[in-house]
Automatic annotation (TrEMBL):
Family annotation (SUPFAM superfamilies): FMN-linked oxidoreductases
Family assignment from sequence similarity: Belongs to the glutamate synthase family.
GO molecular function, one term: glutamate synthase activity
InterPro entries documented for this protein: Aldolase_TIM, Glu_synthdom, Glutamate_Synthase
Lineage: Eukaryota, Viridiplantae, Streptophyta, Embryophyta, Tracheophyta
Annotated GO biological process: glutamate biosynthetic process
Gene3D superfamilies: Aldolase class I
Pfam families recorded: Glu_synthase
Stated name of the protein: Ferredoxin-dependent glutamate synthase 1 chloroplastic-like
Origin superkingdom: Eukaryota
Domain Glutamate synthase intervals: 2-79
Organism annotation: Trifolium medium
Length: 103
């Protein structure tokens, strides 16, 4: 991975972990750019929305909107699969595939 080739050099002392904002607080400010359904695949659109919802971030539906089936939390997941979103795996009951930002 490219980041493994990078090395940070600094003349400053490291900041103690206790003085750094927790990752759970930081990710709540994450927001994806608007990506219309059709510009990317349905699977990708839904996977991004689920991932951002899990971490507390926000995804943007783009101008293509989204299928209303994605607005309700999943309640039919067995072994990571749901008949509601059959093309996705690794799902959990309670996951939602709705985007937080609509255009």
């Amino acid at each position: 991975v490219l980041r493994d080739l990078l090395e940070f050099k600094s003349d400053r002392a490291p900041i103690p972990v206790g003085k750094v904002e927790p990752a759970l607080s930081i990710v709540k400010r994450f927001c994806t750019g608007g990506m219309s359904l059709g510009a990317i695949s349905r699977e990708t659109h839904e996977a991004i929305a689920i991932a951002m919802n899990r971490i507390g971030g926000k995804s943007n539906s783009g101008e293509g909107g989204e299928d209303p089936i994605r607005w309700k939390p999943l309640t039919d997941v067995v072994d990571g699969y749901s008949p509601t979103l059959p093309h996705l795996k690794g799902l959990q009951n309670g996951d939602t595939a709705t985007s937080a930002i609509k255009q």
